[in-house]
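hiii, so i know i said id send this last week but things got crazy w the move. better late than never?? heres the sequnce for the chain we talked about at the cafe, plus the structure i predicted for it. fair warning i was half asleep when i ran it
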Amino acid sequence: MQQSIDPAAEKEVRLRPDFLIPGVGKSGTSSLYAYLRAHPAIYMTPRKEPGFFNWDGAEFSYRGPVDERLYLAATRTIEDYEALFEARQHEAVAGEATPNYLYNEGAAERAYRRYPDLKLVIILRDPVDRLYSHYLHMKRMGDEPLSLTSALKAEPLRRARGYGPSYHYLSQGFYKAQIERFVSRFGWERTRIFLFEDLSRDPLSVVQSIYAFLGVDDRVIPPIGEVHNAFYEPRSKALNALVMKDGAIKRAAKAAVPDSLRARASSLIRRMNGAPKPELDPAIRAELKALYRPEIVALERYLDRDLSAWYSGD
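okay and structure toks below
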């Protein structure tokens, strides 16, 4: 006689992730999140970066300018985390993408304690490019008052004073120990590592490889032509504030203009108002490449993959 399954119990089991995208930041995870979300058999949490495993009961101890804001914005209880999966219906697998899990020293253990059968998809990027993109993001958000050179020099003192990972520009680029924390718990058979450069050059191949790894139809073609979370620095901060920030004018536009038309207008203004991405000073790039080279060589051996493009000359 076939045993019946309690629908409530079945739903409870499904209020959880089957896979994580734990890293690294500024490495295409916004695009990958969108590509995975486009697959009919994959459920992605409506909130892209819940950040639950950065905390999951851990005491808040950072003292940097943005740290409390990020902590308060994170999903911190298991009830709130599992609620992110309540809209899951027919999808075969579910996941979430919080790229700073990889750097967090406790996230791997917390995730394993909750869900030891998770699969992991990790995206790595040239650590110099990642660092610079990270810095530009912080500068653009108004959270970094220092020049890049000064911020790099200040990093050890900031860390000693309790500044959180948002200000750990250099430290986040040492990937090997970060990966080892996850692999030591979940194993290589449940882990796949890809490069941001490959995702940028041939996104369809990378994404379909991930589909296959997750056990869903790898013939699905996601909307790879769309750009997600690209660099944006406004020429006019006043115009950008008018378009992006909530206010009387924006509320009036919401009431009077259809969503689709407002979205197109906002996109057009962003393109017209966007400044070109600044280039990293070649001398600083060369210095950072030399600093990261031993780490990258060790990572090459660990992953058994050629990463010489990350430390050789441009």
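btw Strands lie at 19-23, 42-44, 93-97, 119-124, 191-195, 233-234, 274-275. thought thatd interest u
miss u guys!!
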